[in-house]
């Protein structure tokens, strides 16, 4: 009788080692050309004139103003999206109600709409000839070409991230733990803080990381509503564009290196979460 090979040692594919090596090699070449080389170019250009020139570009008043505004927008947008994401994911995963599919569609809307279009929507809503713009202006509140407009545009383009990471996690976990807590006398808030939140904390952190990276790097929507007022409404991506258009390449790449560093830190943290809590986040990666 011919001994069957254990499933443990069966080949995952039927391709020859040469074909596998070719596929892996092409993937590495593609990643090197389109991801690794541009990243290396950013940092090499940023430090071309030395570390002192890099540091001087970062402490320039307009650059510091752009950094402060970027951090301010992220500090407002990320917690707002975190609250919305938790509430939306809770409603979608734990309850059945009319309009559930429509709510999911609305959450995915910023993924399918160009950021520039989303910025134009706020111009139509809060512009000088719109219905809401003159009313807010009469109240002394500036929306467009000011911090509120930048915050609103950033919230719009980033609000799917937290919700979309939490929905599959909550759906996979079900509502058994919450029902058990309530049956033992826990209130709604106690159930949330002691049962639901600990169960979703890593998925929540995953979504917050992605949301923060997008909020700090958003360009299209913010560019439309900011007005490009130097030192006032320019975030870091907009400041980089201005420096580059002025042929101040060293300063532009210096500021860009900060955003690239943020992306790398986000990637490292994201990978660490996935490796440490792979079982809990498997549904997130597959949605």
Automatic annotation (TrEMBL):
<dbReference type="GO" id="GO:0005886">
    <property type="term" value="C:plasma membrane"/>
</dbReference>
<comment type="function">
    <text>Part of the ABC transporter complex CysAWTP (TC 3.A.1.6.1) involved in sulfate/thiosulfate import. Probably responsible for the translocation of the substrate across the membrane.</text>
</comment>
<feature type="transmembrane region" description="Helical">
    <location>
        <begin position="63"/>
        <end position="90"/>
    </location>
</feature>
<keyword id="KW-0997">Cell inner membrane</keyword>
<dbReference type="GO" id="GO:0015419">
    <property type="term" value="F:ABC-type sulfate transporter activity"/>
</dbReference>
<dbReference type="Pfam" id="PF00528">
    <property type="entry name" value="BPD_transp_1"/>
</dbReference>
<keyword id="KW-0812">Transmembrane</keyword>
<feature type="transmembrane region" description="Helical">
    <location>
        <begin position="204"/>
        <end position="229"/>
    </location>
</feature>
<keyword id="KW-0813">Transport</keyword>
<keyword id="KW-0472">Membrane</keyword>
<protein>
    <recommendedName>
        <fullName>Sulfate transport system permease protein CysW</fullName>
    </recommendedName>
</protein>
<dbReference type="InterPro" id="IPR005667">
    <property type="entry name" value="Sulph_transpt2"/>
</dbReference>
<feature type="transmembrane region" description="Helical">
    <location>
        <begin position="21"/>
        <end position="43"/>
    </location>
</feature>
<feature type="transmembrane region" description="Helical">
    <location>
        <begin position="102"/>
        <end position="123"/>
    </location>
</feature>
<dbReference type="InterPro" id="IPR000515">
    <property type="entry name" value="MetI-like"/>
</dbReference>
<keyword id="KW-0764">Sulfate transport</keyword>
<comment type="subunit">
    <text>The complex is composed of two ATP-binding proteins (CysA), two transmembrane proteins (CysT and CysW) and a solute-binding protein (CysP).</text>
</comment>
<dbReference type="InterPro" id="IPR011866">
    <property type="entry name" value="CysW_permease"/>
</dbReference>
<keyword id="KW-1133">Transmembrane helix</keyword>
<keyword id="KW-1003">Cell membrane</keyword>
<feature type="transmembrane region" description="Helical">
    <location>
        <begin position="249"/>
        <end position="269"/>
    </location>
</feature>
<feature type="domain" description="ABC transmembrane type-1">
    <location>
        <begin position="67"/>
        <end position="270"/>
    </location>
</feature>
<dbReference type="InterPro" id="IPR035906">
    <property type="entry name" value="MetI-like_sf"/>
</dbReference>
<feature type="transmembrane region" description="Helical">
    <location>
        <begin position="143"/>
        <end position="163"/>
    </location>
</feature>
């Amino acid at each position: 009788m011919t001994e069957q090979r254990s499933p443990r040692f069966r080949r995952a594919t039927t391709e020859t080692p040469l074909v596998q090596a070719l596929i892996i090699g092409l993937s590495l070449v593609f990643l090197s050309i389109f991801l690794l080389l541009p990243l290396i170019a950013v940092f090499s250009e940023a430090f071309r004139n030395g570390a002192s020139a890099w540091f001087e570009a970062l402490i320039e008043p307009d650059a510091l103003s752009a950094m402060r505004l970027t951090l301010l927008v992220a500090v407002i947008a990320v917690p707002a999206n975190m609250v919305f994401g938790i509430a939306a994911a809770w409603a979608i995963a734990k309850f059945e109600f009319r309009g559930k599919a429509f709510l999911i569609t609305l959450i995915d809307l910023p993924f399918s709409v160009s950021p520039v279009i989303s910025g134009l929507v706020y111009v139509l809503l809060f512009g000088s000839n719109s219905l809401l713009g003159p009313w807010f202006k009469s109240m002394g509140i500036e929306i467009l070409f000011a911090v509120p407009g930048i915050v609103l545009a950033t919230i719009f383009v980033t609000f799917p991230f937290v919700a979309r990471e939490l929905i599959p996690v909550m759906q996979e976990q079900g509502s058994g733990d919450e029902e058990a807590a309530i049956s033992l006398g826990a209130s709604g808030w106690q159930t949330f803080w002691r049962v639901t939140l600990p169960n979703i904390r890593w998925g929540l952190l995953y979504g917050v990381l992605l949301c923060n990276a997008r909020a700090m790097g958003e360009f299209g929507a913010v560019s439309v509503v900011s007005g490009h007022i130097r030192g006032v409404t320019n975030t870091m991506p907009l400041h980089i564009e201005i420096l580059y258009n002025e042929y101040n390449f060293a300063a532009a790449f210096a500021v860009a290196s900060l955003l690239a560093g943020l992306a790398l830190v986000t990637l490292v943290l994201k990978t660490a979460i996935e490796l440490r809590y792979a079982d809990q986040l498997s549904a997130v990666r597959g949605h």
